[in-house]
């Protein structure tokens, strides 16, 4: 698969007239070698929030895969599976795929009869990802308080079978370029592939 750091997003528009919030999902534990890169990514989001089209951002840990039997069902809590379903709905509506950064994998049953005997899925997520939401005002008529505008990383497939993967770094670079900035973030391109790794 061809992976590109080139910009030019067709699936995510950062309209200056919209209130955009970015949810930056990170793993609770990351290799020490990319901690600084994640900090730099958060710094870039902060700068875009101060100077650009982002009105708000938050850094969140990936939610748990499933609710445990002892957890209370709080209204705002989502599981990783529910979040993935929201992301997949967005990708289907925009003709892109979340693979290879995100994927659902079948987990076989234990040959020793340990745990559940029914096969189930595991949701694999990257070390860091961005979900871009348009925060709606009370004047909006569709009833929702926010609308998912995009998920990064994602991959676009052309009609001739070529693929182009848009990464966290390339999306941030695109927004920075639209702002007329020439951001100098050390080693941002060197770490791009590592940020999209799965654990």
Structure explained in plain terms:
By secondary structure, this protein is α+β, with helices and mostly antiparallel strands. The chain has one domain (20-65, 77-105, 119-195). Helix content is 25%, strand content 25%. It has helices at 35-51, 80-93, 168-178, 188-195, and strands at residues 20-26, 54-61, 96-97, 103-107, 120-124, 128-135, 146-152, 154-157, 163-166. The strands form 3 sheets. A 4-stranded mixed beta sheet has the order 2-1-6-7. The longest helix has 17 residues, at 35-51. It is globular, with a radius of gyration of 18 Å. The chain starts with 19 loop residues before the first strand and ends with a helix. InterPro entries: HTH_63.
Give me the side-by-side strand order of the main sheet: 2-1-6-7
Give the topology string: H per helix, E per strand: EHEHEEEEEEEHH
Count of helical segments?
4
Structural classification: alpha+beta
Percent range for β-strand residues: 25-35%
Largest sheet: 4 strands, mixed
InterPro entries: HTH_63
């Amino acid at each position: 698969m061809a992976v590109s750091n080139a910009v030019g997003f067709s699936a995510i528009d950062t309209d200056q007239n919209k209130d955009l919030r970015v949810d930056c999902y990170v793993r609770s534990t990351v290799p020490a070698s990319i901690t600084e890169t994640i900090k730099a990514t958060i710094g870039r989001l902060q700068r875009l929030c101060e100077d650009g089209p982002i009105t708000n951002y938050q850094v969140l840990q990936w939610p748990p895969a499933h609710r445990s039997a002892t957890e209370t069902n709080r209204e705002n809590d989502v599981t990783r599976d529910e979040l993935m379903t929201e992301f997949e709905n967005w990708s289907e509506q925009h003709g892109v795929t979340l693979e290879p950064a995100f994927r659902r994998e079948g987990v076989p049953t234990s040959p020793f009869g340990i745990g559940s005997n029914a096969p189930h899925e595991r949701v694999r997520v990257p070390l860091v990802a961005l979900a871009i939401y348009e925060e709606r005002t009370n004047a909006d008529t569709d009833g929702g308080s926010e609308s998912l505008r995009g998920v990064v990383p994602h991959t676009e497939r052309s009609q001739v079978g070529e693929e182009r993967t848009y990464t966290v770094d390339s999306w941030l670079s695109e927004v920075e370029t639209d702002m007329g900035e020439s951001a100098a973030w050390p080693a941002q391109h060197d770490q791009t592939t590592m940020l999209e790794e799965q654990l």
